[in-house]
What does this fold into?
Amino acid sequence: MCVNVSNAQSLIQVTKITSSGEIVRIHSGIEALEDAGHTFSADSAIKSKDFKALPAGVPNKNYTSSAYWFRFKVRNETGLSHFILKLANPALDSIDFYEQSGDSSFRHFTTGQSVPFYRREYLSSDYLFSVSLQPNAEKYIYLHLYTNTELMLPLSIGSDTAIHDADKYKDIFWGMYMGIMLAMVLYNCFVYSTTKDKSYLFYILYMLTVVVTQITVSGYAFQLLWPGNLALPKYSRIFTTVLAGITGVMFIR
It folds into this structure.
């Protein structure tokens, strides 16, 4: 999908990619436009002169009923022509990605928890977007976001290899964590079966709910447990957190 635009305002700072092996954190030069009524079309938002510069750091709009448009500009100072933009917040309900593909048009891609997992551009627990950018060129990227949780925007961009390698390390870390937690669950199951002490049973329930909560928050539950269910991701974080608290109190008692 292409969106025709006339022009866009200059940003305070351009994010520069200077090395093919680095992942650049995008924490400055970002502007935001609040869409309180969820009424802005892509064309009207991109043409808008009401974008406001955000302070340096990870954009955070806390809990809000508004949708937001964010924009920033990236420049390629490497010999590569393809990169991946990473948005490391799995809890976002709706994401519209717009990549400038010409002087007056943008490429559009939609994802988020309101879209089945298998329809993502890259099958990752985080949101990854393909970005084409020729050497010594720069372009605008727009993101239209809405969520019923905290609206945080931890953004980074890097080469395909750098981003995929980082994803592999993250998967290994979470795999080790899950293995340790499940081993503890099995061990306590064995102890409970021999002692019949209910405190071990409550501890097992608590650990299981903590594991489910962690994989829900990290996005792995949507990827591995319910990739096609669009209702569970919106409420599973709240439900599992509350359940972990309840089972924790039961164990403490």
Summary: The CA atoms of residues 188 and 200 lie 6 Å apart.
